[in-house]
Amino acid sequence: MSFRKRLLAGSLAAALTVGMTTGCTTVRKSDLSDDYSEVVAATYGDEKIYLDEVNYYLRNSQIMYEYYGAIYGTSIWDMDGMEDQLRQEVMASIYQTRVLCDHADDYNVELTDADKELVKEAVDNLLGDEANADFMEIAGSDEEMLTDLMTKNALANKVYQAIISETDITVKEEDVRRNSISYLLFTESEEDEETADEETVSEEETASDEETEAEEETETAAETEEEKKFTQADANMALKKVQQGTSLEAVGEEYGLEVTETNFAVNEEQTAAFGEKAVTLKKGESAVAYEEGTGWYVMVCDSENDEEATAEAYESAVEDEKSEHFSEVYEKLDKDKFKVNEDVVKILNIVDTPVLNLDSESDAPEEDDTDSAEIVAGDGTEETEEPETVEEETTAAE
C-alpha cells in the first residue's frame, strides 16, 4: 500500500497548543493489556483513542525517520528528542483528523459508497499481502481498526480539500517566472602564500625524502588536473569567445569544463552576484559574474521563461497559499479537548523496533536519490515523498 504525505499547514502548532493536554500518571508496560485495542492512549472529547491506532500511525511515520537515517549512515534516534518529536507528530495527526471529521457537516462532506468501497479495498490489500506480514506484526493492526482509521482519514481529507478549494489564489505565473541559464564555472586560483623559507629546500633533506615527495606529487597529479584553477583572464577570454559566436559547450571543452544548467526567479531579489547578473539577461545574452571564494561564472541566457521551472514554481506558490488559508481556517475551527496520556504512548518502543528493511547494501538509499527511492518496510509500504513535519495519511479514497 502507498501513502501520500500531505502537509496540513499549522496543524502541529495547533495540535500542541489548542485543547491538548497530557497525562502525568506513571504507567508500566506490565500494567497494560497486551491487546493495544483495549489500551486508551488519548481522548478527544468523549471519544477514546486506543493504542493500536497510535501504534499504526507511529510505525508508518517511523519508516521515513529510519530512511533518512540510512541515507546519512547513522541512527536517527541518536539525535536528541527525535523519538519525542515522532510521537508528537503522530498525536498531532490523530488530533487533526478528529477535528476535521467533526466539521464534515459544515462543508457538506461525506463519504460516498464508492469512497467506502475504496477504503475496503485498501484494507483488504494491506491485510492480504504477504509482504506486509512483518510490518503488520509490529503495527499490530486488525481489519476493524484499519477500516476505522482509513475511513476517518478519507473523510478528513475531503474536509481538507473543501477548505483549500475556497482559497483565493492571488499569485500569478509572471510573479514566479524563472529564466534558464547555462554556465561554466571557472574555479578561482589560490594565491601562492608560501614564504621564502617554505620555498627553500633544506640542505639537510635526504634523498629518501625527495623520493617520497616525488611519489606524493605523482599520486596527486590526476586530482590536481581534475581540479583546475583559473584566473579572471581565463574567464574573460571564455566570455569573449562566446560573444564572438563560439558555443558555450565548445568553450567548455577547450577549458575542460562541463556546462551546467540552472534557473533563477527573475522577479525576486537575488543576493549573490551570479543571480544578480543572471536575472538581467535577455535570451541569447552572455555575461560573467564573480563570486568570491568560488570563481567566475560565464553564463548564457537560454530562455527568459523556463516554462517547466516556472510551472513548478507557480504550483509551489499556489500550494503555499492553500496551506496558509487552511492554517487560518483550522485555527478558528471549534475543537474538543484532546488529552494524551504520554506515559502510555511512550510504552511504544521505537529504537529497538525498527521497521525499515533494506535487503542488502546495494538497496541502501543514496543521499541524492530521495525523489525516486523506494522504501520497503516490513509491510511492503512504498514511500516516495519527503516526509512532512505534520502529515495526513490519505487512503485510496482520496
Please name the defining characteristics of this protein.
disordered C terminus; alpha+beta; four-stranded mixed beta sheet; 13 helices
Explained architecture:
α2 crosses α3, α3 (82-102) crosses α6 and α4 (113-128) crosses α6 (143-164). A four-stranded mixed β-sheet has the order 2-9-3-4. Residues 1-32, 192-204, 220-225, 358-364 and 367-398 have low confidence and may be disordered. The chain is elongated and about 75 Å long. It has 13 helices and ten strands. By secondary structure, it is α+β, with helices and mostly antiparallel strands.
Task: Please give a quick description of this structure.
The chain is α+β, with helices and mostly antiparallel strands and 398 residues long. It has helices at 11-17, 51-71, 82-102, 113-128, 133-139, 143-164, 196-199, 207-226, 232-243, 248-255, 273-278, 307-332, 342-345, and strands at 5-7, 20-22, 40-44, 47-50, 180-187, 260-262, 286-291, 295-303, 338-340, 391-393.
List the SSEs and their pairings.
Elements lengths: L4 E3 L3 H7 L2 E3 L17 E5 L2 E4 H21 L10 H21 L10 H16 L4 H7 L3 H22 L15 E8 L8 H4 L7 H20 L5 H12 L4 H8 L4 E3 L10 H6 L7 E6 L3 E9 L3 H26 L5 E3 L1 H4 L45 E3 L5
Parallel strand pairs: 2-9
Antiparallel strand pairs: 1-10, 3-4, 3-9, 5-6, 5-8, 7-8
